[in-house]
Protein backbone atom coordinates (compact mmCIF):
# COMPACT_ATOMS: atom_id res chain seq x y z
CA UNK A 1 0.00 0.00 0.00
CA UNK A 2 1.30 3.50 -0.82
CA UNK A 3 1.82 5.36 2.43
CA UNK A 4 2.94 8.93 2.98
CA UNK A 5 6.53 9.12 4.25
CA UNK A 6 5.44 10.53 7.59
CA UNK A 7 2.24 8.92 8.69
CA UNK A 8 0.29 8.10 11.82
CA UNK A 9 0.86 5.02 13.90
CA UNK A 10 -1.76 2.54 12.70
CA UNK A 11 -3.49 0.47 15.36
CA UNK A 12 -5.41 -2.48 13.92
CA UNK A 13 -8.53 -3.24 15.95
CA UNK A 14 -10.02 -6.67 15.65
CA UNK A 15 -11.92 -9.33 17.54
CA UNK A 16 -14.39 -12.12 17.01
CA UNK A 17 -18.13 -11.69 16.58
CA UNK A 18 -19.87 -10.00 19.50
CA UNK A 19 -16.67 -9.21 21.38
CA UNK A 20 -17.50 -5.49 21.37
CA UNK A 21 -15.29 -4.24 18.57
CA UNK A 22 -17.78 -1.68 17.27
CA UNK A 23 -18.35 -0.36 20.78
CA UNK A 24 -14.61 -0.09 21.39
CA UNK A 25 -14.05 1.54 17.97
CA UNK A 26 -16.59 4.20 19.00
CA UNK A 27 -14.60 4.74 22.20
CA UNK A 28 -11.44 5.39 20.16
CA UNK A 29 -13.39 7.87 18.03
CA UNK A 30 -14.69 9.61 21.18
CA UNK A 31 -11.07 9.91 22.31
CA UNK A 32 -10.35 11.82 19.10
CA UNK A 33 -8.68 9.00 17.18
CA UNK A 34 -9.69 8.76 13.49
CA UNK A 35 -11.23 5.33 12.87
CA UNK A 36 -11.46 3.55 9.52
CA UNK A 37 -14.31 1.04 9.63
CA UNK A 38 -13.68 -1.71 7.06
CA UNK A 39 -17.16 -3.20 7.41
CA UNK A 40 -18.84 0.18 6.89
CA UNK A 41 -16.69 0.75 3.82
CA UNK A 42 -17.75 -2.62 2.36
CA UNK A 43 -21.39 -1.69 3.01
CA UNK A 44 -20.89 1.66 1.22
CA UNK A 45 -19.17 0.03 -1.74
CA UNK A 46 -21.92 -2.59 -2.01
CA UNK A 47 -24.87 -0.31 -1.18
CA UNK A 48 -27.21 1.61 -3.51
CA UNK A 49 -25.05 3.19 -6.23
CA UNK A 50 -21.95 1.67 -4.63
CA UNK A 51 -18.77 1.54 -6.70
CA UNK A 52 -18.55 -2.26 -6.58
CA UNK A 53 -22.13 -3.07 -7.51
CA UNK A 54 -21.49 -3.38 -11.29
CA UNK A 55 -18.45 -5.64 -10.81
CA UNK A 56 -20.31 -7.84 -8.33
CA UNK A 57 -23.32 -8.09 -10.65
CA UNK A 58 -20.96 -9.11 -13.47
CA UNK A 59 -19.27 -11.75 -11.32
CA UNK A 60 -22.43 -12.95 -9.58
CA UNK A 61 -25.38 -12.34 -11.93
CA UNK A 62 -28.63 -11.58 -10.10
CA UNK A 63 -26.88 -10.78 -6.82
CA UNK A 64 -27.67 -7.06 -6.90
CA UNK A 65 -30.79 -4.90 -7.15
CA UNK A 66 -31.93 -1.32 -6.55
CA UNK A 67 -30.57 -1.52 -3.00
CA UNK A 68 -27.16 -2.64 -4.19
CA UNK A 69 -25.80 -6.06 -3.30
CA UNK A 70 -28.32 -8.48 -1.80
CA UNK A 71 -25.90 -9.38 0.96
CA UNK A 72 -27.84 -12.17 2.64
CA UNK A 73 -28.35 -13.96 -0.71
CA UNK A 74 -24.78 -13.43 -1.84
CA UNK A 75 -23.56 -14.57 1.58
CA UNK A 76 -25.55 -17.80 1.25
CA UNK A 77 -23.82 -18.42 -2.09
CA UNK A 78 -20.24 -17.54 -1.20
CA UNK A 79 -20.07 -18.93 2.34
CA UNK A 80 -21.02 -22.33 0.90
CA UNK A 81 -18.40 -22.17 -1.86
CA UNK A 82 -14.81 -21.18 -1.03
CA UNK A 83 -13.92 -20.53 -4.69
CA UNK A 84 -16.87 -18.13 -5.01
CA UNK A 85 -15.84 -16.38 -1.77
CA UNK A 86 -12.32 -15.96 -3.16
CA UNK A 87 -13.76 -14.42 -6.33
CA UNK A 88 -15.84 -11.98 -4.28
CA UNK A 89 -12.85 -11.08 -2.12
CA UNK A 90 -10.78 -10.40 -5.23
CA UNK A 91 -13.38 -7.76 -6.14
CA UNK A 92 -13.91 -6.30 -2.67
CA UNK A 93 -10.52 -6.32 -0.94
CA UNK A 94 -8.54 -4.12 -3.36
CA UNK A 95 -11.27 -1.46 -3.16
CA UNK A 96 -11.20 -1.52 0.64
CA UNK A 97 -7.42 -1.31 0.62
CA UNK A 98 -7.57 1.74 -1.67
CA UNK A 99 -10.09 3.38 0.67
CA UNK A 100 -7.74 2.74 3.61
CA UNK A 101 -4.87 4.37 1.74
CA UNK A 102 -7.06 7.44 1.03
CA UNK A 103 -8.08 7.56 4.70
CA UNK A 104 -4.44 7.58 5.72
CA UNK A 105 -3.66 10.46 3.39
CA UNK A 106 -6.65 12.38 4.76
CA UNK A 107 -5.40 11.87 8.34
CA UNK A 108 -1.67 12.14 7.67
CA UNK A 109 -1.26 14.70 10.47
CA UNK A 110 -2.81 12.53 13.19
CA UNK A 111 -0.36 10.79 15.54
CA UNK A 112 -2.57 7.72 15.74
CA UNK A 113 -5.35 6.16 13.65
CA UNK A 114 -7.36 2.97 14.11
CA UNK A 115 -8.13 0.50 11.35
CA UNK A 116 -11.17 -1.48 12.48
CA UNK A 117 -10.78 -4.74 10.54
CA UNK A 118 -12.97 -7.65 11.69
CA UNK A 119 -10.97 -10.28 9.80
CA UNK A 120 -7.49 -8.79 10.32
CA UNK A 121 -5.87 -12.11 11.22
CA UNK A 122 -8.04 -14.37 9.07
CA UNK A 123 -7.35 -12.34 5.91
CA UNK A 124 -3.66 -11.89 6.70
CA UNK A 125 -3.74 -8.09 6.86
CA UNK A 126 -1.07 -7.62 9.52
CA UNK A 127 1.13 -5.77 7.04
CA UNK A 128 -1.52 -3.01 6.90
CA UNK A 129 -1.02 -2.03 10.56
CA UNK A 130 1.77 -1.30 13.04
CA UNK A 131 0.16 -2.71 16.19
CA UNK A 132 -2.82 -4.92 16.86
CA UNK A 133 -5.41 -4.61 19.63
CA UNK A 134 -7.84 -7.47 20.13
CA UNK A 135 -11.15 -6.99 21.91
CA UNK A 136 -12.02 -9.99 23.98
CA UNK A 137 -14.64 -11.22 26.42
CA UNK A 138 -15.32 -14.66 27.92
CA UNK A 139 -17.03 -17.06 25.49
CA UNK A 140 -20.28 -17.11 27.47
CA UNK A 141 -20.51 -13.31 27.40
CA UNK A 142 -19.81 -13.35 23.65
CA UNK A 143 -22.51 -15.98 23.03
CA UNK A 144 -25.09 -14.15 25.16
CA UNK A 145 -24.49 -10.90 23.25
CA UNK A 146 -24.72 -12.51 19.84
CA UNK A 147 -27.72 -14.71 20.61
CA UNK A 148 -29.63 -11.64 21.82
CA UNK A 149 -29.54 -10.25 18.25
CA UNK A 150 -32.67 -10.68 16.15
CA UNK A 151 -32.54 -13.65 13.77
CA UNK A 152 -29.43 -15.12 15.37
CA UNK A 153 -29.37 -18.79 16.26
CA UNK A 154 -26.84 -21.05 17.97
CA UNK A 155 -26.26 -22.77 14.59
CA UNK A 156 -25.50 -19.49 12.80
CA UNK A 157 -23.17 -18.45 15.61
CA UNK A 158 -21.35 -21.79 15.40
CA UNK A 159 -20.92 -21.40 11.62
CA UNK A 160 -19.50 -17.88 12.01
CA UNK A 161 -17.19 -18.94 14.84
CA UNK A 162 -15.91 -21.76 12.62
CA UNK A 163 -14.81 -19.19 10.01
CA UNK A 164 -13.04 -17.03 12.60
CA UNK A 165 -9.71 -17.63 14.31
CA UNK A 166 -10.29 -18.70 17.94
CA UNK A 167 -10.25 -15.84 20.42
CA UNK A 168 -7.36 -17.35 22.40
CA UNK A 169 -5.21 -17.39 19.27
CA UNK A 170 -6.07 -13.80 18.47
CA UNK A 171 -5.16 -12.74 22.00
CA UNK A 172 -1.85 -14.60 21.76
CA UNK A 173 -0.97 -12.75 18.57
CA UNK A 174 -2.07 -9.28 19.69
CA UNK A 175 0.11 -6.50 21.03
CA UNK A 176 -2.75 -5.35 23.24
CA UNK A 177 -5.87 -7.00 24.60
CA UNK A 178 -8.88 -4.84 25.44
CA UNK A 179 -11.20 -6.65 27.83
CA UNK A 180 -14.89 -6.10 27.17
CA UNK A 181 -16.34 -8.60 29.61
CA UNK A 182 -16.23 -5.84 32.21
CA UNK A 183 -18.24 -2.62 32.53
CA UNK A 184 -18.30 -0.14 29.66
CA UNK A 185 -16.58 2.36 31.98
CA UNK A 186 -13.68 -0.01 32.63
CA UNK A 187 -13.30 -0.71 28.91
CA UNK A 188 -13.37 3.04 28.21
CA UNK A 189 -10.58 3.53 30.75
CA UNK A 190 -8.51 0.82 29.01
CA UNK A 191 -9.01 2.53 25.66
CA UNK A 192 -8.01 5.91 27.12
CA UNK A 193 -4.85 4.43 28.64
CA UNK A 194 -3.90 2.75 25.37
CA UNK A 195 -4.49 5.92 23.35
CA UNK A 196 -2.34 7.90 25.77
CA UNK A 197 0.43 5.33 25.59
CA UNK A 198 0.45 5.07 21.81
CA UNK A 199 0.18 8.82 21.29
CA UNK A 200 3.10 9.36 23.61
CA UNK A 201 5.10 6.94 21.52
CA UNK A 202 5.77 4.81 24.57
CA UNK A 203 4.76 1.54 22.95
CA UNK A 204 7.89 -0.47 22.40
CA UNK A 205 8.58 -1.89 18.98
CA UNK A 206 8.26 -5.39 20.31
CA UNK A 207 5.37 -7.72 19.77
CA UNK A 208 4.63 -7.88 23.47
CA UNK A 209 1.23 -8.96 24.65
CA UNK A 210 -0.18 -6.89 27.44
CA UNK A 211 -3.40 -5.70 28.87
CA UNK A 212 -4.20 -2.26 27.48
C1 LIG B 1 -20.70 -12.03 1.49
C2 LIG B 1 -21.26 -10.79 2.13
C3 LIG B 1 -21.96 -9.90 1.09
C4 LIG B 1 -22.32 -11.25 3.17
O1 LIG B 1 -22.81 -10.15 3.89
P1 LIG B 1 -23.68 -10.37 5.23
O2 LIG B 1 -24.13 -9.00 5.64
O3 LIG B 1 -24.74 -11.40 4.97
O4 LIG B 1 -22.70 -10.99 6.30
P2 LIG B 1 -21.50 -10.28 7.13
O5 LIG B 1 -20.69 -9.41 6.24
O6 LIG B 1 -22.07 -9.66 8.36
O7 LIG B 1 -20.62 -11.53 7.51
C5 LIG B 1 -21.12 -12.52 8.41
C6 LIG B 1 -19.92 -13.23 9.01
O8 LIG B 1 -19.20 -13.89 7.96
C7 LIG B 1 -17.83 -13.71 8.11
N1 LIG B 1 -17.23 -13.21 6.86
C8 LIG B 1 -17.53 -12.09 6.13
N2 LIG B 1 -16.72 -11.98 5.07
C9 LIG B 1 -15.88 -13.03 5.13
C10 LIG B 1 -14.80 -13.45 4.35
N3 LIG B 1 -14.42 -12.76 3.27
N4 LIG B 1 -14.14 -14.57 4.72
C11 LIG B 1 -14.51 -15.27 5.82
N5 LIG B 1 -15.53 -14.91 6.61
C12 LIG B 1 -16.21 -13.82 6.28
C13 LIG B 1 -17.59 -12.73 9.23
O9 LIG B 1 -17.02 -13.45 10.28
C14 LIG B 1 -18.94 -12.25 9.66
O10 LIG B 1 -19.08 -12.25 11.04
C15 LIG B 1 -20.15 -9.95 2.83
O11 LIG B 1 -19.72 -10.63 3.97
C16 LIG B 1 -18.95 -9.69 1.93
O12 LIG B 1 -19.04 -8.93 0.98
N6 LIG B 1 -17.81 -10.34 2.26
C17 LIG B 1 -16.62 -10.20 1.45
C18 LIG B 1 -15.86 -8.97 1.83
C19 LIG B 1 -15.09 -9.18 3.10
O13 LIG B 1 -14.10 -9.89 3.14
N7 LIG B 1 -15.55 -8.52 4.18
C20 LIG B 1 -14.91 -8.62 5.45
C21 LIG B 1 -14.52 -7.29 5.99
S1 LIG B 1 -13.24 -6.50 5.03
N1 LIG C 1 -17.34 -3.50 28.40
C1 LIG C 1 -17.94 -3.58 27.22
N2 LIG C 1 -17.26 -3.31 26.08
C2 LIG C 1 -17.86 -3.42 24.87
N3 LIG C 1 -19.15 -3.79 24.69
C3 LIG C 1 -19.89 -4.04 25.80
C4 LIG C 1 -19.31 -3.96 27.09
N4 LIG C 1 -20.26 -4.29 27.99
C5 LIG C 1 -21.39 -4.54 27.29
N5 LIG C 1 -21.17 -4.40 25.96
C6 LIG C 1 -22.20 -4.60 24.93
O1 LIG C 1 -21.85 -5.69 24.08
C7 LIG C 1 -22.31 -5.45 22.76
C8 LIG C 1 -21.13 -5.57 21.81
O2 LIG C 1 -21.55 -5.32 20.49
P1 LIG C 1 -20.62 -4.75 19.34
O3 LIG C 1 -21.53 -4.48 18.19
O4 LIG C 1 -19.74 -3.66 19.85
O5 LIG C 1 -19.71 -6.03 19.04
P2 LIG C 1 -18.86 -6.40 17.76
O6 LIG C 1 -17.73 -7.19 18.27
O7 LIG C 1 -18.57 -5.17 16.97
O8 LIG C 1 -19.85 -7.31 17.01
P3 LIG C 1 -19.81 -7.92 15.54
O9 LIG C 1 -18.44 -8.41 15.29
O10 LIG C 1 -20.81 -8.98 15.63
O11 LIG C 1 -20.23 -6.76 14.65
C9 LIG C 1 -22.93 -4.06 22.75
O12 LIG C 1 -24.32 -4.19 22.91
C10 LIG C 1 -22.31 -3.41 24.00
O13 LIG C 1 -23.10 -2.39 24.57
From TrEMBL:
UniProt pathway annotation: Cofactor biosynthesis; coenzyme A biosynthesis; CoA from (R)-pantothenate: step 5/5
EC number: 2.7.1.24
Alphabetical UniProt keywords: ATP-binding, Coenzyme A biosynthesis, Cytoplasm, Kinase, Nucleotide-binding, Transferase
Record keyword Transport present: no
Residues annotated for ATP binding in this entry: 18-23
InterPro entries with a match to the protein in the record: Depp_CoAkinase, P-loop_NTPase
Subcellular compartments: Cytoplasm
GO molecular function terms listed in the Swiss-Prot or TrEMBL record: dephospho-CoA kinase activity
Catalytic reaction annotation: 3'-dephospho-CoA + ATP = ADP + CoA + H(+)
Primary enzyme class: transferase
Superkingdom of this protein's organism: Bacteria
KW Magnesium (keyword) present: no
Coiled-coil annotated residue ranges, if any: none
Membership in a protein family: Belongs to the CoaE family.
HAMAP family xrefs: Dephospho_CoA_kinase (MF_00376)
Function: Catalyzes the phosphorylation of the 3'-hydroxyl group of dephosphocoenzyme A to form coenzyme A.
Protein name per UniProt: Dephospho-CoA kinase
Organism this protein belongs to: Alteraurantiacibacter palmitatis
Amino acid sequence: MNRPLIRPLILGLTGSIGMGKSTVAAMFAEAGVPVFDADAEVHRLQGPGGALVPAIEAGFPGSTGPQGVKRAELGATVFADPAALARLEAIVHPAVQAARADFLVAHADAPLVVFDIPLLFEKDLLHEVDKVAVVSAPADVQAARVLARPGMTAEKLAAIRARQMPDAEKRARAHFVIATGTSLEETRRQVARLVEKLRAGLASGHAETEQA
